[in-house]
Amino acid sequence: MQADHSSQLESLVHQQLRECSPVFLALADPIRQDIIMMLTKHDSLNVAQIVERSPMSRSAISHHLKILKQAKLVASTKVSTEIYYALDIEGPVQQLKEFLATTERIIEMKTAGAE
């Protein structure tokens, strides 16, 4: 039974890891990290406001925002002709917590089995 439960957990953690991959990839880039930090200091910013605070071009910032949005780390809202971006990290944070919890259970089981 223990091996079956361990196999199920390993399958679950593998699935969770795949689901978290876009978040890991999005957060791996220093420019995207900078954008995340900017958005922690402001409720929302448009592309021009982010460009003002960055050495990157408008097209580069737009590209990075697209990746952050695909990873569900930022949300966008259109106001008139401008699109504003804001942090929206609750979902990804919950995914990461679940991944870590499953990983910890696997480690605990392996540690208990080694004793």
From TrEMBL:
The HTH arsR-type domain covers: 12-107
Q: Which SMART domains match?
A: HTH_ARSR (SM00418)
Q: Which UniProt keywords apply?
A: DNA-binding, Transcription, Transcription regulation
Family annotation (CDD domains): HTH_ARSR
The reply to whether Transcription regulation figures as a keyword in the UniProt entry is: yes
Q: State a single Gene Ontology molecular function.
A: DNA binding
Query: What InterPro entries does the record tag this protein with?
Result: ArsR-like_HTH, HTH_ArsR_DNA-bd_dom, HTH_MetalResp_TranReg, WH-like_DNA-bd_sf, WH_DNA-bd_sf
The family database entries (Pfam families) matched by this protein are listed as: HTH_5
The cross-references to PANTHER family, in alphabetical order and at most eight, read:
TRANSCRIPTIONAL REGULATOR, ARSR FAMILY, TRANSCRIPTIONAL REPRESSOR SDPR
According to UniProt, the name of this protein is Metalloregulator ArsR/SmtB family transcription factor
What is the species of this protein?
A: Cohnella ginsengisoli
